[in-house]
Amino acid sequence: MQVPPLARSALDRDHAGRIAADAVARALEQPSTRVIAVAGDRAPVRDGALVRLRPDELPASARHVEPRVPLSWLGRAPAADGGAGGVVLSLLVAEPFEVEGAQWRSLREVGAELDDADAGAFVQAVALGVWQRESHHSPVDGSAAGFEESGWVRRDASGGAHFPRTDPAVIVAIHDASDERILLGHNAAWPEGRYSLIAGFVDPGESLEAAVVREVHEETGLAVADVRYLGSQPWPFPRSLMIGFECVAADPDAIVPDGVEILDVRWFTREELRSGAVQLPGPTSIAAWIIDAWLER
């Protein structure tokens, strides 16, 4: 089954393995263990593959650049026989360091080019790192919260456990009843000529389907029906889960962009999109995956 580019993964997260208090320490004793270093949303890439360093290849300075964040458990790489292989850890660093023959590349840039194993490990390391960097204190009482379970849980002074946060957002392909046109919008933050699908965060207490109907109406003025799920992928910029849908506009001419977030909304035919008349989303995004699927059908 084809899935969006950042939904691909071949890593066994091995939850049971990571919950032991000494899981990372024991992993560092194994010759098969590898470490993915991450600076923001960048990691070293060499010859089209994510660089996985042996622990002894890490510069001494890199080990302490993010002193509050430990080496963290991502999972186990797939073995040649199909089983679980060596442990893969992540290390947050404040700045890239020299890795022979490699360039530090953004997940946005190369996520779609990497194989399933690298794409899954990279997006997981970036997403976990965002939470680790931004959640040093308890959201309940403000006390300092230390790491447990190999970097996946924080425990505050009162004993409360806190887990990585994910913000769900819907992203929607709206087409007319004939399926000959798709609706794309121009966001106020984008350069001139860039268009993409309508998207927005899910409100508390709201279903995904209800969020689709509400967001589309808020940003375009359109009423939609026949909401259908397409697929999802993580988008750790900083902590979203993009959930793709398509739907049909009941009255395609009733367009009223909100004028604040969305400045322009237009219907496009397949021929117009193929002509390159507008700038479309990059290949790492689920928006590109949805638009490409619509173009091909």
Give a short overview.
This protein has 297 residues and is of the alpha+beta class. It contains seven helices and 15 strands.
Write up what this structure looks like.
The protein has helices at 15-18, 23-28, 107-110, 116-134, 208-220, 270-274, 286-296, and strands at 34-38, 42-46, 49-50, 72-78, 84-92, 103-106, 146-148, 153-155, 161-162, 167-175, 181-187, 198-201, 224-235, 240-249, 262-269. The chain has 297 residues and is an alpha+beta fold. It contains seven helices and 15 strands. Strands 10, 11, 12, 13, 14 and 15 form a six-stranded mixed β-sheet that branches. The longest helix has 19 residues, at 116-134.
Principal-axis shape? globular
Order of helices and strands: HHEEEEEEHHEEEEEEHEEEHH
Intertermini distance? 16 Å
Structural class designation: alpha+beta
Percent helix = 10-25%
Low-confidence stretches: none
Helix count from the secondary structure assignment:
7
Give the radius of gyration: 21 Å
List the helices and strands and how they pair.
Layout: H1 15-18, H2 23-28, E1 34-38, E2 42-46, E3 49-50, E4 72-78, E5 84-92, E6 103-106, H3 107-110, H4 116-134, E7 146-148, E8 153-155, E9 161-162, E10 167-175, E11 181-187, E12 198-201, H5 208-220, E13 224-235, E14 240-249, E15 262-269, H6 270-274, H7 286-296
Parallel strand pairs: 1-5, 10-14
Antiparallel strand pairs: 2-3, 2-6, 4-5, 7-8, 8-9, 10-11, 10-12, 11-15, 13-14
